From TrEMBL:
SMART domains: WD40. Pathway: Protein modification; protein ubiquitination. The keyword Ligase does not apply. This is GATOR2 complex protein WDR24. It is an enzyme of class 2 (transferase). WD repeats lie at residues 116-158, 203-245. It comes from Aotus nancymaae. Its EC number is 2.3.2.27. Component of the GATOR2 subcomplex, composed of MIOS, SEC13, SEH1L, WDR24 and WDR59. The GATOR2 complex interacts with CASTOR1 and CASTOR2; the interaction is negatively regulated by arginine. The GATOR2 complex interacts with SESN1, SESN2 and SESN3; the interaction is negatively regulated by amino acids. SESN1, SESN2 and SESN3 convey leucine availability via direct interaction with SEH1L and WDR24.
Amino acid sequence: MEKMSRVTTALGGSVLTGRTMHCHLDAPANAISVCRDAAQVVVAGRSIFKIYAIEEEQFVEKLNLRVGRKPSLNLSCADVVWHQMDENLLATAATNGVVVTWNLGRPSRNKQDQLFTEHKRTVNKVCFHPTEAHVLLSGSQDGFMKCFDLRRKDSVSTFSGQSESVRDVQFSIRDYFTFASTFENGNVQLWDIRRPDRCERMFTAHNGPVFCCDWHPEDRGWLATGGRDKMVKVWDMTTHRAKEMHCVQTIASVARVKWRPECRHHLATCSMMVDHNIYVWDVRRPFVPAAMFEEHRDVTTGIAWRHPHDPSFLLSGSKDSSLCQHLFRDASQPVERANPEGLCYGLFGDLAFAAKESLVAAESGRKPYTGDRRHPIFFKRKLDPAEPFAGLASSALSVFETEPGGSAMRWFVDTAERYALAGRPLAELCDHNAKVARELGRNQVAQTWTMLRTIYCSPGLLPTANLSHSVGKGGSCGLQLMNSFNLKDMAPGLGSETRLDRSKGDARSDTVLLDSSATLITNEDNEETEGSDVPADYLLGDVEGEDDELYLLDPEHTHPEEPECVLPQEAFPLRHEIVDTPPGPEHLQDKADSPHVSGSEADVASLAPMDSSFSLLSVSHALYDSRLPPDFFSVLVRDMLHFYAEQGDVQMAVSVLIVLGERVRKDIDEQTQEHWYTSYIDLLQRFRLWNVSNEVVKLSTSRAVSCLNQASTTLHVNCSHCKRPMSSRGWVCDRCHRCASMCAVCHHVVKGLFVWCQGCSHGGHLQHIMKWLEGSSHCPAGCGHLCEYS
């Protein structure tokens, strides 16, 4: 819905009048540029190249520059610029590497003037000199910048950034010979068009590609840059080194940046992806935009202020095939609906809370915040009352401090430094981490590690010798039973397996083992049990685990609510009434020794009474698998990790993820794992545990996290003598042919770890400097500076 407000601006002898409006284009636009009289705008893209007149109520198409029967790649435009001195001169950057100039004064339909085909790859940007009518500059994907004199057929200068592709080039408005260029490696270079052999200055502006730059129209040295790191930075180029003046944090990669006319601290930005809106920022308030335009439905590809002295009209083109004129008065003001409340935890558990001053009663009795007792956790800048946004929103800050030592985070640091995450068997890792947690008083965490060891590691088996020794004890000391259970609590299926069918005269082969690997204890194997025919009671169980053993069934120690089920001497109850007298154990033994008995009938239970108080039942294999597979506990382990993460102990969640690896990774989605890893790494870095942080990154099971230490690994080195970048690999400068890093103590090249004084810049081998400063505080280079090493 179009807004109907209008603005009329008097600019010298001309008057700008208009409103918020838009028109539909034939194809998506890649770039736009405005004529110097602010009456026309050119729109260029892969399939569109038209000039529109900007009237009071609408856009009117004036000229279509895509003429000819056959489509040409020269007309596929990545960028377009309209000369601010000659209203008939245009230049376009083609996707095939051609730079084309257009003369609107030609009488023919085809307005194409000159073609420059010196670039080998796509040309990303073209720029006319602000005061020189015949000078054109281009930057290409091939890493070169070329300066063209339109009176010649070839370029007059070629500038090599010795880097990756050039994304933007802009002539300085105040310095005649200076232009800036941005690159995909994050660098910004300043060049003098008279010296194409090397740049005047180079510095790293962003963490990632720098997509755009723009010189301030009033302040001579201010340069704004925008990059993929979602930041807009303002640099002061008048100092010896580029100084960052302001930094604006946006929500998406910055594709275009333009200073707002007549407003020193305002600039407009648009995003390369995700975000379709256009924002106008006050660099003094970098977190909330001063204005926002929301008309486009797809990514905005080009923005331009309509007149260099009018701050009211902004033009934009988009991939949604639309051209818009935005009236600043109609823009939404995000600061008006900004939430003035905030909440944040400090590194040591302190809680900072900001709210409207009207909501915080003056008589609440709270003491004003004077700063953290350990070291400042944040810095509050005093607002200048003269700033236009000083009275828009105001909040009162309250800080709730924890008791000294009540929430000390020393346990976090000790745990991070002492935990073992790899390099050992799983059982040893769990035992070590459980020991660390127990020594730090974190008993629940220690118990969790112990349980993980029990679930995922094979339990130790009780040696056969120990079993025989325990069986031979008898008497009053008793015999312990491992993992005892009541028959009445067994599953119906298991219960049916324990019955012996006497009616058929054969015995079931389903029997019970003391241990899956232990030798069967039968009458033949244990001589101490032979000859005992005293009736005894039996308890059925299996030997499984390390700590439990076979124990003596004592009627005095039975559970009062769940009494043990006592078996008769026949070991199993009868299914139905037996008329004949059932055979005794001797008969079974004789039958097992008979050569006419089958193998299945020979594997029957042997009743071997130990003494007058009990007998032992041994069978060939277990009734059930007493050890559940680890996958059975996957849901439990997953819930446990979520529990620790929700409690704020992301250290435990990440440590278990790394130790268990693929055993648990499949049960937790990648996004959750990445969130846990990044949270833990952020905490480690806040505590300056850099080595532990790097180890967690290396051992990470998340692909998005494991590549964190593979980014930004390039180190830019300048020669210590001529101050020029060292392009070649090694320790000798290509320009001055001198060694770049010499030790001030031994006067040899430092090829390893190098340490230097930040005061005088002299240094050398780490061990040499440390030994030198033990006996003297003066610089070993003889400069007279008092160096310190801590």
